[in-house]
Amino acid sequence: MPKRLLIVLAVTALAIAACHGSSVSPSPSSSPASPNPNPSITTAKVLVTINGTPRPHIPVNESTPSNPASPRPGKTIVTEYTRKLGVAHFSDLKPSKTYCWVALLGQGKISSECAGWPVWQSGEITLGT
Question: Averaged in consecutive runs of 10 residues, what is the pLDDT profile of the chain (129 residues)?
């Protein structure tokens, strides 16, 4: 009986050690986003890809949604063309607004996305295929 008890204790100790050994808390890779728009960020970058490859010279229309409750592209404000690396830059954006971007991919194909400030202020909008 004592051998069984020692074996059970040894297995239990190994199980506890294994659980504690793998419970390392990951450190955050970046600080959490602020709960308010950043008034100093007034530009957005839109990357356009076709079959996963960034494409230059693609027209991208910027608009605000006609209905903020169900964001869909509205009337075009400005059209920018993607540059050499497939990125179009949009400036003079209002930090608290939602914007929409529509990439005209050719042959009647389009790709669009509407995004609020938490998205367009913190990264790149990606359109295309």
Answer: 56 51 42 73 96 96 87 92 97 94 94 94 94
CA atoms within a 13 Å half-sphere pointing along the CA-CB vector of 93: 27
Is the entire prediction scored with pTM above 0.85? no
Query: Are 122 and 90 in contact, with CB atoms under 8 Å apart?
Result: no
Compute the Cα dihedral for 95, 101, 80, 83 and give only its sign. positive
Kindly state whether residue 109 falls inside one of the protein's structural domains.
yes
The C-alpha torsion from 73 through 87 and 42 to 95, rounded to 10°, is 40
Give the number of domains in the chain.
Answer: 1
